[in-house]
Write a structure and sequence with these properties.
mainly alpha; Serine Threonine Protein Phosphatase 5, Tetratricopeptide repeat; 9 helices; about 70% helix; binds adenosine-5'-diphosphate; binds magnesium ion
């Protein structure tokens, strides 16, 4: 089965719309409150770009929108992830392998640029378990469960990277917004891949 990249991104955009208020609230607690806007706008711009350029590979369009236009720390980092996934899917003969490779390489790029380690309370904490699940041959649904569990577990972490590191213990008990937003990508992947 071939996963429809445009449908996946539209599903992700709908999820980000629905979660906008919750993501904003999370970033108000641990950051500056703009993560819900950044993710929602990035995905709205992506959907608009897909409508305007339907012949281009959808994941590549999304990657360049996030790299070029989306603000916050998260915008360019998500752009690196989506671009790596796009490249890997283009190169792979097996789609499932392509996703595993893309997430692995996207995570590596995010860590090269952002220097966050697992346990720093960032999107890395959702990506590491998702990468491990996909590398181990798990289903997309299990990949999504791993990402969601990783995001939820950030509620117990004191931040060492990003703005959340300035607020000390205030964010304890609430999950990291970026990790939560990344988990929605894997949720959308599972929805579209295994409806
Ligand atoms: P900003 O802090 O610039 O307002 P956003 O609100 O767009 O950025 O994104 C915040 C999210 O970015 C955090 O919840 C975290 O998941 C992620 N993040 C912050 N710093 C890093 C980093 N160094 N590496 C990976 N992810 C990071
Ligand atoms: Mg923010
Ligand atoms: Mg900001």
């Amino acid at each position: 089965m071939t996963i429809d990249q445009a449908q996946l991104l539209r599903t992700y955009a709908e999820a980000a719309d629905t979660a906008h208020q919750a993501l904003t609230a999370l970033d108000q607690i641990s950051g500056d409150g703009d993560f819900g806007d950044n993710l929602r706008e990035g995905l709205r711009w992506t959907v608009a770009a897909l409508d305007a350029r339907p012949q281009e590979p959808a994941m590549a369009v999304a990657g360049s929108v996030f790299l070029d236009k989306v603000g916050g720390t998260s915008g360019p980092l998500i752009g690196l992830l989506l671009s790596a996934i796009s490249r890997a899917l283009t190169d792979a003969s097996d789609e499932r392998e392509g996703w595993a490779t893309g997430v692995r390489e996207g995570l590596a790029a995010i860590q090269r640029v952002g220097e966050a380690e697992p346990g720093d309370r960032t999107m890395v904490d959702a990506l590491v378990p998702a990468r491990d699940a996909l590398d181990a041959g798990a289903s997309y649904a299990d990949g999504a469960r791993a990402a969601l569990a990783g995001a939820a577990a950030t509620a117990d972490i004191r931040a060492r990277r990003g703005r959340a590191s300035y607020v000390g213990d205030r964010a304890l008990g609430t999950p990291d917004p970026g990790a939560t937003g990344i988990a929605l990508l894997f949720w959308a992947l599972a929805r579209v891949a295994e409806p």
